[in-house]
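RECORD TYPE: protein structure
NAME: Putative metal-dependent hydrolase
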Amino acid sequence: MDQLCIRDQMIPYEERRSARYRRVTLTILEDRLRITAPKNVSAKQLKELLLTKQEWILKSWLKNQDRQKPPAEYHDGQQFLYQGENLELRIQRHKRKMLRVSPEGQVLRVYIPEDLPVQAWVPNIQAALISWYKDQARKVLQDKLDKQAKRMEVTFQTFRLKAQKTRWGSCSSKRNINLNWRIIMAPDEVIDYVIIHELAHLTYLNHSVQFWERVAQFMPEYKQWRKWLKDHGQKLSV
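PREDICTED:
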């Protein structure tokens, strides 16, 4: 994912182009800036727009980061969960201009540009970690969804990552599946439970006795993992 640097603040951003878009829009998300643009808008025009919108982007980004209340600090040795396993955070400066997250065995190493001020570390590290977790979640959850859907003999329309504060997943009447990206931190059995739960809604869009029987059909021990999520869900955060 590309990054903007505005007054020592690294802001990850993604660019989306489509003939359906009629104008350029900038949207501040939890972990990145999203740029949507028509296909006929040149890279030069986008660059010029970003330059003119720098003040708005930075102000909106910082306001959004404040709402998320990041931890007071990140430090070496801090533990973060990934698929139920603890990864140890290691922070290291490097000469490149980009902030990068790299898993190395049981270590989650964050490389920070040498010229990034210490006071800018917290929001930048948090944004980088969220971005990394989301990248992993897109691949792992999609694979698990496809496998479980085949096993349960159901089909869904689309899969999207979400950042709900109180929900781990949802299934719409249009057969769209949404999964909270933070679930990638939980053990595989918990992830499978959430996925089976949502896929079961493709058959029963409620929480009836029949719904829970279908969940149990594909995960007999689901109550154990549902309890794990209730007891430990608050730990699934960065």
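COMMENT: The chain has three domains: 2-67, 79-133, 137-235.
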